[in-house]
Write the structure tokens for this entry.
Amino acid sequence: MEYNPSSIFVRKIIRPKYIVPEEQRIVIGSLPSLPIPKGNAGAGLLSQILVNKFGYHLPFYRQQQIFKSQGVILSEATICGWFNASTRLLVPLYDCLQKQLLQSNYLQIDESPIGVQGYS
């Protein structure tokens, strides 16, 4: 067996620049769309933050430590802002799921508690 740890990288976007001689102006290619407008986090990084939070119950300060061990310095406020913006993107999915669940005749839930670390 082998293990290849996750990697974080900066994606360099090269936008072509053209001159329109007839109009005497410069045209620059458009940027690809990102999940968070005017943000610099890609979908893969945002989904990893959400999976770590909901799937592995990792608080933001621990995720910050993991990123730091990989050579990426992110503030907890940045991670929190990306998390909030990402969860807002999931609202239509939540609404659709809620509608389907409420139309069901039978629901099952898991009420086992998950301990939360308190701050003293």
User: Anything to note?
Assistant: Residues 42-102 form one domain. The mean pLDDT is 89. The CA atoms of residues 48 and 54 lie 10 Å apart. The longest strand covers residues 17-20.
